[in-house]
Design a protein that fits this description.
Chain lengths: 95, 502
Protein backbone atom coordinates (compact mmCIF):
# COMPACT_ATOMS: atom_id res chain seq x y z
CA UNK A 1 0.00 0.00 0.00
CA UNK A 2 1.40 3.38 -0.83
CA UNK A 3 2.22 5.91 1.86
CA UNK A 4 -0.19 8.51 0.56
CA UNK A 5 -3.21 6.19 0.62
CA UNK A 6 -2.22 4.95 4.05
CA UNK A 7 -2.11 8.55 5.26
CA UNK A 8 -5.53 9.31 3.81
CA UNK A 9 -7.07 6.32 5.57
CA UNK A 10 -5.41 7.29 8.82
CA UNK A 11 -6.69 10.86 8.57
CA UNK A 12 -10.22 9.63 7.90
CA UNK A 13 -9.96 7.25 10.87
CA UNK A 14 -8.90 10.12 13.11
CA UNK A 15 -11.41 12.68 11.84
CA UNK A 16 -14.41 10.35 12.19
CA UNK A 17 -13.40 9.22 15.67
CA UNK A 18 -13.17 5.65 14.38
CA UNK A 19 -9.54 5.53 15.46
CA UNK A 20 -10.59 6.10 19.05
CA UNK A 21 -13.22 3.39 18.82
CA UNK A 22 -10.69 0.91 17.44
CA UNK A 23 -8.21 1.90 20.12
CA UNK A 24 -10.73 1.19 22.85
CA UNK A 25 -11.77 -2.05 21.16
CA UNK A 26 -8.15 -3.14 20.96
CA UNK A 27 -7.52 -2.23 24.58
CA UNK A 28 -10.54 -4.26 25.70
CA UNK A 29 -9.50 -7.29 23.64
CA UNK A 30 -5.88 -7.21 24.78
CA UNK A 31 -6.95 -6.88 28.37
CA UNK A 32 -9.44 -9.71 28.28
CA UNK A 33 -7.09 -12.00 26.36
CA UNK A 34 -4.50 -11.69 29.12
CA UNK A 35 -1.99 -10.05 26.76
CA UNK A 36 -1.57 -7.03 28.99
CA UNK A 37 -0.93 -9.11 32.11
CA UNK A 38 1.50 -11.42 30.35
CA UNK A 39 3.45 -8.46 29.02
CA UNK A 40 3.57 -6.67 32.33
CA UNK A 41 4.94 -9.89 33.83
CA UNK A 42 7.72 -9.93 31.24
CA UNK A 43 8.50 -6.31 32.10
CA UNK A 44 8.58 -7.10 35.81
CA UNK A 45 10.95 -10.01 35.26
CA UNK A 46 13.26 -7.81 33.23
CA UNK A 47 13.24 -5.06 35.83
CA UNK A 48 13.89 -7.53 38.60
CA UNK A 49 16.78 -9.12 36.75
CA UNK A 50 18.53 -5.85 35.89
CA UNK A 51 17.54 -3.83 38.91
CA UNK A 52 15.03 -1.03 38.59
CA UNK A 53 17.69 1.68 38.91
CA UNK A 54 19.57 0.48 35.85
CA UNK A 55 16.75 0.41 33.34
CA UNK A 56 15.20 3.40 31.61
CA UNK A 57 11.93 3.60 29.70
CA UNK A 58 13.66 3.64 26.34
CA UNK A 59 15.49 0.40 27.00
CA UNK A 60 12.41 -1.31 28.41
CA UNK A 61 10.39 -0.22 25.40
CA UNK A 62 12.95 -1.72 23.00
CA UNK A 63 13.04 -4.97 24.93
CA UNK A 64 9.25 -5.31 25.13
CA UNK A 65 8.32 -4.19 21.63
CA UNK A 66 9.31 -7.44 19.93
CA UNK A 67 7.59 -9.62 22.51
CA UNK A 68 4.56 -7.34 22.58
CA UNK A 69 3.98 -7.50 18.84
CA UNK A 70 4.65 -11.22 18.66
CA UNK A 71 2.25 -12.14 21.42
CA UNK A 72 -0.85 -10.33 20.15
CA UNK A 73 -3.42 -13.12 19.63
CA UNK A 74 -4.23 -13.84 15.98
CA UNK A 75 -7.95 -13.50 16.63
CA UNK A 76 -7.40 -9.93 17.83
CA UNK A 77 -5.33 -9.01 14.77
CA UNK A 78 -7.94 -10.53 12.52
CA UNK A 79 -10.83 -8.75 14.19
CA UNK A 80 -9.07 -5.40 13.90
CA UNK A 81 -8.24 -6.04 10.26
CA UNK A 82 -11.90 -6.80 9.51
CA UNK A 83 -12.97 -3.64 11.35
CA UNK A 84 -10.57 -1.48 9.35
CA UNK A 85 -11.57 -3.16 6.09
CA UNK A 86 -15.24 -2.52 6.83
CA UNK A 87 -14.44 1.11 7.59
CA UNK A 88 -12.60 1.56 4.29
CA UNK A 89 -15.47 -0.11 2.43
CA UNK A 90 -17.95 2.31 4.04
CA UNK A 91 -15.85 5.29 3.01
CA UNK A 92 -15.15 4.35 -0.57
CA UNK A 93 -14.23 7.93 -1.29
CA UNK A 94 -10.90 7.39 0.43
CA UNK A 95 -9.64 5.01 -2.24
CA UNK B 1 14.41 9.72 38.94
CA UNK B 2 11.29 11.29 40.30
CA UNK B 3 11.65 12.57 43.84
CA UNK B 4 8.94 10.29 45.12
CA UNK B 5 7.09 7.49 43.39
CA UNK B 6 3.78 8.60 41.93
CA UNK B 7 4.49 12.29 42.37
CA UNK B 8 5.78 15.16 40.28
CA UNK B 9 9.52 15.71 40.04
CA UNK B 10 10.90 19.01 41.33
CA UNK B 11 11.41 20.32 37.76
CA UNK B 12 7.73 20.04 36.92
CA UNK B 13 6.49 20.90 40.41
CA UNK B 14 8.18 24.32 40.11
CA UNK B 15 5.84 25.34 37.32
CA UNK B 16 2.98 23.06 38.09
CA UNK B 17 0.17 25.51 37.25
CA UNK B 18 1.58 26.46 33.88
CA UNK B 19 2.21 22.85 32.98
CA UNK B 20 -1.32 21.92 34.01
CA UNK B 21 -2.82 24.57 31.73
CA UNK B 22 -0.96 23.27 28.68
CA UNK B 23 -1.61 19.70 29.77
CA UNK B 24 -5.36 20.35 29.67
CA UNK B 25 -5.07 21.84 26.19
CA UNK B 26 -3.06 18.97 24.77
CA UNK B 27 -5.40 16.42 26.36
CA UNK B 28 -8.51 18.01 24.89
CA UNK B 29 -7.06 18.62 21.43
CA UNK B 30 -4.67 15.78 20.80
CA UNK B 31 -5.36 12.95 23.21
CA UNK B 32 -9.06 12.87 24.00
CA UNK B 33 -10.77 15.32 21.61
CA UNK B 34 -14.29 16.04 22.77
CA UNK B 35 -15.82 17.41 19.58
CA UNK B 36 -15.81 16.89 15.82
CA UNK B 37 -13.93 20.16 15.49
CA UNK B 38 -11.12 18.99 17.75
CA UNK B 39 -10.96 15.66 15.94
CA UNK B 40 -10.46 17.55 12.65
CA UNK B 41 -7.74 19.66 14.24
CA UNK B 42 -6.03 16.58 15.49
CA UNK B 43 -5.65 15.28 11.92
CA UNK B 44 -3.41 18.28 11.23
CA UNK B 45 -1.45 18.33 14.46
CA UNK B 46 -0.91 14.68 15.18
CA UNK B 47 2.48 14.26 13.57
CA UNK B 48 6.12 15.06 14.15
CA UNK B 49 6.60 18.74 13.29
CA UNK B 50 10.11 18.03 12.07
CA UNK B 51 9.85 14.86 9.98
CA UNK B 52 6.04 14.62 9.57
CA UNK B 53 6.00 10.96 10.64
CA UNK B 54 2.80 9.60 12.17
CA UNK B 55 1.59 6.45 13.90
CA UNK B 56 2.11 4.76 17.24
CA UNK B 57 5.62 3.56 16.42
CA UNK B 58 6.93 7.18 16.25
CA UNK B 59 6.00 7.71 19.91
CA UNK B 60 5.01 11.33 19.54
CA UNK B 61 5.56 13.72 22.44
CA UNK B 62 4.13 17.21 22.68
CA UNK B 63 6.13 19.93 24.37
CA UNK B 64 4.18 21.51 27.20
CA UNK B 65 6.15 24.76 27.11
CA UNK B 66 5.56 25.66 23.50
CA UNK B 67 3.57 24.41 20.56
CA UNK B 68 5.71 21.57 19.29
CA UNK B 69 5.17 17.87 18.63
CA UNK B 70 8.18 15.64 18.07
CA UNK B 71 8.80 11.96 17.60
CA UNK B 72 11.06 9.81 19.71
CA UNK B 73 11.64 7.40 16.86
CA UNK B 74 14.07 9.81 15.17
CA UNK B 75 14.84 11.67 18.38
CA UNK B 76 13.17 14.91 17.25
CA UNK B 77 11.53 15.50 20.60
CA UNK B 78 14.92 15.17 22.27
CA UNK B 79 16.44 17.62 19.78
CA UNK B 80 13.67 20.09 20.55
CA UNK B 81 14.49 19.86 24.25
CA UNK B 82 18.18 20.50 23.59
CA UNK B 83 17.52 23.45 21.31
CA UNK B 84 14.82 25.19 23.32
CA UNK B 85 15.65 24.09 26.86
CA UNK B 86 11.99 23.10 27.29
CA UNK B 87 11.95 20.03 29.48
CA UNK B 88 8.32 19.10 30.10
CA UNK B 89 6.56 16.98 27.50
CA UNK B 90 3.58 14.66 27.31
CA UNK B 91 3.39 11.31 25.55
CA UNK B 92 0.62 11.52 22.97
CA UNK B 93 0.05 7.76 23.06
CA UNK B 94 -0.54 7.55 26.78
CA UNK B 95 -1.08 11.06 28.06
CA UNK B 96 1.76 10.70 30.59
CA UNK B 97 4.06 13.55 31.59
CA UNK B 98 7.74 13.28 30.70
CA UNK B 99 10.59 15.25 32.21
CA UNK B 100 13.71 15.56 30.06
CA UNK B 101 15.85 16.59 33.02
CA UNK B 102 15.01 13.38 34.87
CA UNK B 103 14.65 11.39 31.64
CA UNK B 104 11.63 9.78 33.27
CA UNK B 105 7.88 9.60 32.91
CA UNK B 106 6.14 11.23 35.85
CA UNK B 107 2.74 10.47 37.31
CA UNK B 108 0.59 12.76 39.36
CA UNK B 109 -2.87 12.06 40.68
CA UNK B 110 -4.41 15.40 39.69
CA UNK B 111 -3.03 15.20 36.18
CA UNK B 112 -4.28 11.61 35.85
CA UNK B 113 -7.76 12.70 36.91
CA UNK B 114 -7.83 15.36 34.17
CA UNK B 115 -6.89 12.72 31.59
CA UNK B 116 -9.42 10.18 32.87
CA UNK B 117 -12.24 12.73 32.87
CA UNK B 118 -11.39 13.84 29.34
CA UNK B 119 -11.35 10.21 28.25
CA UNK B 120 -14.81 9.73 29.76
CA UNK B 121 -16.14 12.79 27.88
CA UNK B 122 -14.69 11.40 24.66
CA UNK B 123 -16.36 8.04 25.37
CA UNK B 124 -19.71 9.81 25.88
CA UNK B 125 -19.24 11.85 22.74
CA UNK B 126 -18.26 8.92 20.50
CA UNK B 127 -20.55 6.44 22.26
CA UNK B 128 -17.70 4.19 23.40
CA UNK B 129 -18.91 3.44 26.89
CA UNK B 130 -19.41 -0.17 25.93
CA UNK B 131 -15.63 -0.51 25.93
CA UNK B 132 -14.54 2.09 28.42
CA UNK B 133 -16.82 0.84 31.17
CA UNK B 134 -16.77 -2.87 30.37
CA UNK B 135 -13.24 -3.49 31.59
CA UNK B 136 -12.57 -0.93 34.28
CA UNK B 137 -9.04 -1.10 35.57
CA UNK B 138 -8.85 -1.59 39.27
CA UNK B 139 -7.53 1.40 41.11
CA UNK B 140 -7.20 0.40 44.72
CA UNK B 141 -8.79 2.89 47.08
CA UNK B 142 -7.34 3.96 50.38
CA UNK B 143 -8.90 1.16 52.42
CA UNK B 144 -7.92 -1.40 49.85
CA UNK B 145 -4.33 -0.18 49.82
CA UNK B 146 -4.27 -0.63 53.56
CA UNK B 147 -5.56 -4.19 53.24
CA UNK B 148 -2.94 -4.91 50.59
CA UNK B 149 -0.16 -3.69 52.85
CA UNK B 150 -1.40 -6.04 55.58
CA UNK B 151 -1.21 -8.97 53.16
CA UNK B 152 2.25 -8.76 51.61
CA UNK B 153 2.12 -12.20 49.98
CA UNK B 154 1.65 -11.88 46.21
CA UNK B 155 0.87 -14.62 43.76
CA UNK B 156 1.32 -14.23 40.05
CA UNK B 157 -1.01 -16.36 38.01
CA UNK B 158 -0.16 -17.33 34.47
CA UNK B 159 -1.15 -20.20 32.22
CA UNK B 160 1.26 -22.54 33.97
CA UNK B 161 0.27 -21.80 37.56
CA UNK B 162 -1.57 -24.80 39.00
CA UNK B 163 -4.08 -22.51 40.70
CA UNK B 164 -7.51 -23.89 41.45
CA UNK B 165 -6.26 -27.47 41.68
CA UNK B 166 -6.83 -29.10 45.00
CA UNK B 167 -7.43 -32.64 46.09
CA UNK B 168 -10.37 -33.53 48.33
CA UNK B 169 -10.29 -36.12 51.08
CA UNK B 170 -12.77 -38.92 50.79
CA UNK B 171 -14.86 -38.82 53.96
CA UNK B 172 -16.24 -42.31 53.50
CA UNK B 173 -17.87 -42.97 50.13
CA UNK B 174 -18.01 -39.27 49.36
CA UNK B 175 -16.40 -39.45 45.93
CA UNK B 176 -19.85 -38.63 44.51
CA UNK B 177 -19.52 -35.25 46.22
CA UNK B 178 -15.83 -34.70 45.45
CA UNK B 179 -16.24 -35.09 41.69
CA UNK B 180 -19.09 -32.56 41.67
CA UNK B 181 -17.13 -30.06 43.80
CA UNK B 182 -14.27 -30.35 41.30
CA UNK B 183 -16.61 -29.56 38.41
CA UNK B 184 -18.34 -26.70 40.22
CA UNK B 185 -15.08 -25.05 41.30
CA UNK B 186 -13.96 -25.07 37.67
CA UNK B 187 -17.14 -23.56 36.27
CA UNK B 188 -15.84 -20.21 34.96
CA UNK B 189 -18.95 -18.15 35.78
CA UNK B 190 -19.31 -19.58 39.27
CA UNK B 191 -15.63 -18.96 39.93
CA UNK B 192 -15.91 -15.32 38.91
CA UNK B 193 -19.01 -14.88 41.05
CA UNK B 194 -17.55 -16.42 44.18
CA UNK B 195 -14.02 -15.08 43.94
CA UNK B 196 -15.33 -11.55 43.49
CA UNK B 197 -17.42 -12.14 46.64
CA UNK B 198 -20.70 -11.09 45.13
CA UNK B 199 -22.72 -13.28 47.47
CA UNK B 200 -24.59 -11.45 50.22
CA UNK B 201 -25.91 -13.88 52.77
CA UNK B 202 -29.64 -13.61 53.45
CA UNK B 203 -29.93 -16.48 55.89
CA UNK B 204 -30.07 -16.06 59.66
CA UNK B 205 -26.64 -17.58 60.06
CA UNK B 206 -23.85 -17.86 57.47
CA UNK B 207 -22.89 -21.16 59.09
CA UNK B 208 -26.16 -22.58 57.84
CA UNK B 209 -25.85 -21.13 54.32
CA UNK B 210 -24.68 -23.41 51.53
CA UNK B 211 -23.82 -20.42 49.34
CA UNK B 212 -21.44 -19.08 52.00
CA UNK B 213 -19.90 -22.55 52.23
CA UNK B 214 -19.46 -22.66 48.44
CA UNK B 215 -17.80 -19.29 48.69
CA UNK B 216 -15.30 -20.57 51.27
CA UNK B 217 -14.66 -23.70 49.16
CA UNK B 218 -13.76 -21.49 46.18
CA UNK B 219 -11.39 -19.52 48.40
CA UNK B 220 -9.80 -22.75 49.61
CA UNK B 221 -9.40 -24.01 46.05
CA UNK B 222 -7.82 -20.82 44.75
CA UNK B 223 -5.71 -20.08 47.83
CA UNK B 224 -2.62 -21.75 46.39
CA UNK B 225 -2.50 -24.38 49.16
CA UNK B 226 -1.25 -27.70 47.87
CA UNK B 227 -2.50 -30.17 50.48
CA UNK B 228 -5.97 -31.71 50.05
CA UNK B 229 -9.02 -29.92 51.40
CA UNK B 230 -11.42 -31.60 53.82
CA UNK B 231 -14.98 -30.75 52.78
CA UNK B 232 -16.64 -31.68 56.07
CA UNK B 233 -18.73 -28.54 56.42
CA UNK B 234 -20.19 -28.88 52.96
CA UNK B 235 -21.03 -32.53 53.59
CA UNK B 236 -22.62 -31.63 56.91
CA UNK B 237 -24.73 -28.88 55.30
CA UNK B 238 -25.89 -31.21 52.53
CA UNK B 239 -26.73 -33.88 55.09
CA UNK B 240 -28.81 -31.50 57.16
CA UNK B 241 -30.60 -29.89 54.23
CA UNK B 242 -30.97 -32.85 51.86
CA UNK B 243 -31.82 -35.75 54.13
CA UNK B 244 -31.97 -38.29 51.32
CA UNK B 245 -28.21 -37.91 50.79
CA UNK B 246 -27.30 -38.34 54.47
CA UNK B 247 -25.35 -41.36 55.66
CA UNK B 248 -22.26 -43.21 54.60
CA UNK B 249 -23.77 -45.10 51.68
CA UNK B 250 -22.73 -44.56 48.10
CA UNK B 251 -24.76 -41.89 46.42
CA UNK B 252 -25.40 -40.85 42.86
CA UNK B 253 -23.24 -37.94 41.73
CA UNK B 254 -25.99 -36.58 39.51
CA UNK B 255 -28.44 -36.60 42.38
CA UNK B 256 -25.90 -34.76 44.51
CA UNK B 257 -25.34 -32.20 41.75
CA UNK B 258 -29.06 -31.49 41.44
CA UNK B 259 -29.48 -31.32 45.21
CA UNK B 260 -26.58 -28.86 45.44
CA UNK B 261 -28.02 -26.59 42.74
CA UNK B 262 -31.37 -26.75 44.47
CA UNK B 263 -29.95 -25.89 47.90
CA UNK B 264 -27.70 -23.10 46.64
CA UNK B 265 -30.66 -21.64 44.77
CA UNK B 266 -32.80 -21.94 47.88
CA UNK B 267 -30.23 -20.34 50.17
CA UNK B 268 -29.34 -17.59 47.70
CA UNK B 269 -32.86 -16.56 46.79
CA UNK B 270 -34.82 -17.54 49.87
CA UNK B 271 -37.43 -19.35 47.79
CA UNK B 272 -38.21 -23.07 47.85
CA UNK B 273 -39.44 -23.28 44.27
CA UNK B 274 -36.74 -24.42 41.89
CA UNK B 275 -36.12 -22.23 38.83
CA UNK B 276 -38.87 -19.83 39.85
CA UNK B 277 -39.31 -17.25 37.13
CA UNK B 278 -37.52 -13.95 37.59
CA UNK B 279 -35.18 -15.33 40.23
CA UNK B 280 -31.78 -13.78 39.68
CA UNK B 281 -29.75 -16.01 41.95
CA UNK B 282 -26.42 -17.18 40.60
CA UNK B 283 -27.71 -20.70 39.97
CA UNK B 284 -30.54 -19.43 37.79
CA UNK B 285 -28.30 -17.00 35.96
CA UNK B 286 -25.84 -19.77 35.08
CA UNK B 287 -27.76 -23.04 34.90
CA UNK B 288 -31.37 -22.30 34.03
CA UNK B 289 -32.37 -22.87 30.44
CA UNK B 290 -35.74 -23.70 28.98
CA UNK B 291 -37.17 -26.43 26.82
CA UNK B 292 -40.00 -25.92 24.40
CA UNK B 293 -42.40 -28.82 24.20
CA UNK B 294 -44.62 -28.88 21.11
CA UNK B 295 -47.54 -31.28 21.15
CA UNK B 296 -48.98 -31.65 17.66
CA UNK B 297 -52.46 -33.09 17.23
CA UNK B 298 -52.37 -35.71 14.47
CA UNK B 299 -55.92 -34.91 13.44
CA UNK B 300 -55.93 -31.12 12.99
CA UNK B 301 -52.14 -30.45 13.23
CA UNK B 302 -52.81 -27.83 15.88
CA UNK B 303 -49.75 -27.16 18.01
CA UNK B 304 -49.86 -26.60 21.72
CA UNK B 305 -46.61 -25.24 23.08
CA UNK B 306 -45.38 -25.21 26.65
CA UNK B 307 -42.09 -23.93 27.99
CA UNK B 308 -40.37 -25.78 30.82
CA UNK B 309 -37.26 -24.61 32.63
CA UNK B 310 -34.36 -27.02 33.19
CA UNK B 311 -31.04 -27.17 35.03
CA UNK B 312 -29.64 -30.18 33.25
CA UNK B 313 -30.45 -32.52 30.39
CA UNK B 314 -30.80 -36.25 30.97
CA UNK B 315 -30.11 -38.26 27.85
CA UNK B 316 -31.05 -41.84 27.00
CA UNK B 317 -28.20 -43.85 25.59
CA UNK B 318 -30.42 -46.02 23.42
CA UNK B 319 -30.84 -49.75 23.65
CA UNK B 320 -27.99 -52.15 23.15
CA UNK B 321 -30.30 -54.64 21.53
CA UNK B 322 -29.38 -57.53 19.29
CA UNK B 323 -31.02 -55.70 16.40
CA UNK B 324 -28.61 -52.84 16.74
CA UNK B 325 -25.51 -54.98 16.59
CA UNK B 326 -26.40 -56.27 13.14
CA UNK B 327 -26.33 -52.80 11.69
CA UNK B 328 -22.92 -51.83 10.34
CA UNK B 329 -23.18 -48.41 12.04
CA UNK B 330 -22.98 -49.92 15.50
CA UNK B 331 -19.27 -50.35 14.87
CA UNK B 332 -19.01 -46.60 15.19
CA UNK B 333 -19.06 -45.18 18.63
CA UNK B 334 -22.39 -43.67 19.49
CA UNK B 335 -22.15 -39.91 19.74
CA UNK B 336 -23.49 -37.32 22.12
CA UNK B 337 -25.08 -35.62 19.13
CA UNK B 338 -26.97 -38.86 18.37
CA UNK B 339 -28.40 -38.75 21.89
CA UNK B 340 -29.34 -35.10 21.43
CA UNK B 341 -31.01 -35.85 18.12
CA UNK B 342 -32.95 -38.58 19.82
CA UNK B 343 -33.85 -36.19 22.63
CA UNK B 344 -35.23 -33.55 20.25
CA UNK B 345 -36.98 -35.98 17.89
CA UNK B 346 -40.75 -35.80 17.50
CA UNK B 347 -42.09 -38.68 19.55
CA UNK B 348 -45.39 -40.36 18.82
CA UNK B 349 -47.33 -40.52 22.02
CA UNK B 350 -49.32 -43.58 20.91
CA UNK B 351 -52.95 -44.50 21.03
CA UNK B 352 -52.93 -45.21 24.75
CA UNK B 353 -52.00 -41.61 25.56
CA UNK B 354 -54.56 -39.52 23.72
CA UNK B 355 -54.47 -35.89 24.65
CA UNK B 356 -57.31 -33.42 24.44
CA UNK B 357 -56.48 -31.05 21.62
CA UNK B 358 -57.47 -27.49 22.39
CA UNK B 359 -58.02 -26.68 18.73
CA UNK B 360 -60.31 -29.46 17.57
CA UNK B 361 -61.58 -30.11 21.09
CA UNK B 362 -61.31 -33.85 21.02
CA UNK B 363 -59.01 -36.55 22.32
CA UNK B 364 -56.53 -37.32 19.60
CA UNK B 365 -53.26 -39.08 19.07
CA UNK B 366 -50.42 -36.63 18.98
CA UNK B 367 -46.67 -36.22 18.73
CA UNK B 368 -44.49 -34.43 21.21
CA UNK B 369 -41.21 -32.75 20.42
CA UNK B 370 -38.72 -31.12 22.76
CA UNK B 371 -36.33 -28.40 21.61
CA UNK B 372 -34.15 -25.88 23.42
CA UNK B 373 -35.88 -22.54 23.79
CA UNK B 374 -33.18 -20.85 25.82
CA UNK B 375 -29.76 -22.29 26.46
CA UNK B 376 -28.09 -21.60 29.81
CA UNK B 377 -24.51 -20.40 30.24
CA UNK B 378 -23.58 -23.84 31.50
CA UNK B 379 -25.25 -26.92 30.08
CA UNK B 380 -24.77 -30.18 31.90
CA UNK B 381 -25.68 -33.49 30.32
CA UNK B 382 -26.54 -36.52 32.37
CA UNK B 383 -26.02 -39.74 30.43
CA UNK B 384 -28.45 -42.24 31.84
CA UNK B 385 -26.04 -45.05 32.60
CA UNK B 386 -28.09 -46.40 35.46
CA UNK B 387 -31.23 -48.05 34.22
CA UNK B 388 -33.96 -48.76 36.69
CA UNK B 389 -37.02 -50.47 35.30
CA UNK B 390 -39.55 -52.75 37.01
CA UNK B 391 -37.68 -55.80 35.80
CA UNK B 392 -34.05 -54.94 36.11
CA UNK B 393 -31.51 -52.48 37.39
CA UNK B 394 -28.37 -52.32 35.32
CA UNK B 395 -25.53 -50.10 34.30
CA UNK B 396 -25.26 -49.21 30.63
CA UNK B 397 -21.65 -49.06 29.52
CA UNK B 398 -22.22 -47.98 25.94
CA UNK B 399 -19.31 -45.75 24.98
CA UNK B 400 -20.50 -42.30 23.97
CA UNK B 401 -18.22 -40.00 21.99
CA UNK B 402 -18.47 -36.35 22.94
CA UNK B 403 -16.81 -33.35 21.37
CA UNK B 404 -14.64 -30.67 22.96
CA UNK B 405 -16.67 -27.99 21.18
CA UNK B 406 -20.38 -28.62 20.86
CA UNK B 407 -22.74 -26.72 18.60
CA UNK B 408 -26.24 -26.82 20.00
CA UNK B 409 -27.93 -24.75 17.30
CA UNK B 410 -29.47 -27.80 15.51
CA UNK B 411 -31.47 -28.55 18.67
CA UNK B 412 -32.85 -25.06 19.19
CA UNK B 413 -36.54 -24.26 18.84
CA UNK B 414 -37.33 -22.56 15.55
CA UNK B 415 -38.20 -18.90 16.05
CA UNK B 416 -41.95 -18.40 15.67
CA UNK B 417 -41.87 -15.99 12.75
CA UNK B 418 -39.89 -18.46 10.70
CA UNK B 419 -42.83 -20.81 10.37
CA UNK B 420 -44.65 -18.64 7.88
CA UNK B 421 -41.67 -16.97 6.26
CA UNK B 422 -39.57 -18.51 3.56
CA UNK B 423 -36.97 -20.54 5.47
CA UNK B 424 -34.14 -19.30 3.25
CA UNK B 425 -34.91 -15.65 3.85
CA UNK B 426 -34.20 -15.72 7.57
CA UNK B 427 -31.02 -17.73 7.34
CA UNK B 428 -29.04 -14.60 6.51
CA UNK B 429 -30.01 -12.86 9.70
CA UNK B 430 -26.89 -12.88 11.90
CA UNK B 431 -28.92 -13.45 15.06
CA UNK B 432 -29.95 -16.86 13.70
CA UNK B 433 -26.64 -17.79 12.20
CA UNK B 434 -24.66 -17.07 15.36
CA UNK B 435 -23.69 -20.50 16.59
CA UNK B 436 -24.62 -21.77 20.00
CA UNK B 437 -21.18 -23.16 20.61
CA UNK B 438 -20.25 -24.74 23.92
CA UNK B 439 -16.87 -25.81 25.28
CA UNK B 440 -16.28 -28.84 27.47
CA UNK B 441 -14.81 -28.08 30.91
CA UNK B 442 -15.73 -31.00 33.14
CA UNK B 443 -16.49 -34.71 32.91
CA UNK B 444 -17.60 -37.03 35.72
CA UNK B 445 -16.89 -40.74 35.34
CA UNK B 446 -18.31 -43.69 37.21
CA UNK B 447 -16.17 -46.79 37.35
CA UNK B 448 -17.57 -50.04 38.65
CA UNK B 449 -20.99 -51.54 38.86
CA UNK B 450 -24.42 -50.43 39.91
CA UNK B 451 -23.87 -51.66 43.46
CA UNK B 452 -20.38 -50.45 44.03
CA UNK B 453 -18.14 -48.08 42.19
CA UNK B 454 -16.02 -44.99 42.27
CA UNK B 455 -16.45 -41.50 40.87
CA UNK B 456 -13.63 -39.43 39.39
CA UNK B 457 -13.65 -36.22 37.38
CA UNK B 458 -11.70 -34.64 34.58
CA UNK B 459 -11.58 -30.87 34.79
CA UNK B 460 -10.18 -28.18 32.54
CA UNK B 461 -7.98 -25.92 34.64
CA UNK B 462 -6.58 -23.68 31.89
CA UNK B 463 -7.52 -23.39 28.19
CA UNK B 464 -5.65 -26.57 27.31
CA UNK B 465 -4.77 -27.96 30.70
CA UNK B 466 -6.79 -30.99 31.73
CA UNK B 467 -6.49 -32.75 35.04
CA UNK B 468 -7.87 -35.93 36.49
CA UNK B 469 -9.23 -35.53 40.01
CA UNK B 470 -9.50 -38.71 42.02
CA UNK B 471 -10.26 -37.62 45.59
CA UNK B 472 -6.86 -36.57 47.00
CA UNK B 473 -5.01 -37.24 43.83
CA UNK B 474 -4.68 -34.74 40.99
CA UNK B 475 -2.89 -35.83 37.82
CA UNK B 476 -2.34 -34.16 34.48
CA UNK B 477 -4.42 -35.61 31.69
CA UNK B 478 -4.46 -35.37 27.92
CA UNK B 479 -7.50 -34.25 25.99
CA UNK B 480 -7.51 -37.64 24.18
CA UNK B 481 -7.76 -39.40 27.51
CA UNK B 482 -10.67 -37.16 28.47
CA UNK B 483 -12.56 -37.63 25.20
CA UNK B 484 -12.21 -41.41 25.34
CA UNK B 485 -13.51 -41.93 28.83
CA UNK B 486 -16.84 -43.46 29.74
CA UNK B 487 -18.53 -40.22 30.72
CA UNK B 488 -21.44 -40.07 33.11
CA UNK B 489 -21.91 -36.31 33.47
CA UNK B 490 -20.68 -33.72 30.97
CA UNK B 491 -20.29 -30.03 31.67
CA UNK B 492 -20.15 -27.49 28.86
CA UNK B 493 -19.99 -23.70 29.07
CA UNK B 494 -21.07 -21.20 26.46
CA UNK B 495 -18.10 -20.20 24.34
CA UNK B 496 -19.24 -16.77 23.18
CA UNK B 497 -20.99 -14.58 25.69
CA UNK B 498 -23.25 -11.84 24.37
CA UNK B 499 -23.52 -8.50 26.08
CA UNK B 500 -26.67 -8.16 28.12
CA UNK B 501 -29.48 -6.48 26.20
CA UNK B 502 -30.83 -3.60 28.19
Amino acid sequence: MNQELSNRIRQKLVATGEEERLKELLKTRLLSSGWRDELSAVAREYLKAKGVQHVDVEELQNVLLVEARKSIPDTVKKELLVEIRDFVMQHEGIL
Amino acid sequence: MADRPGGLCSHIAEQRDLVMESYKIVISFLISPESRENLEKRVQRFKCYTCESVGARCRLHACLQCCYVGCRLYNHSQEHHEESNHHVAISLSHGVLYCYLCAEYVHDYEFDIIAIKARQRLADFLDLNEFVRSVPLWNPKYGELELLSLQPKRMRVDSKTPIGLRGLYNLGNTCFMNCIIQCLTHTPFLREYFLSQQHKCIRSSPADCLVCEMCSIFQEFYSGKIFPHVPTRLLYLVWTHAQHLAGYEQQDAHEFFMATLNLVHKHASGTDIPYSGGCNCIIDVIFTGSLQSDVVCQSCHGVSTTIEPFWDISLDLGQQTAGDSRKPRSLDRKKLTDCLENFTRAEHLGSAAKIKCSKCNSYQESTKQLTFKKLPLVVSFHLKRFEHSKLLHKKVSTPIAFPQQLDLSPYMAKPEEQEEADPTSTSHDPSFSRPHTYSLFGVVIHQGTLQTGHYTAYIRQSPNGWFKCDDCEIKTATIEEVLNCEAYLLFYHKKYIEYAVE
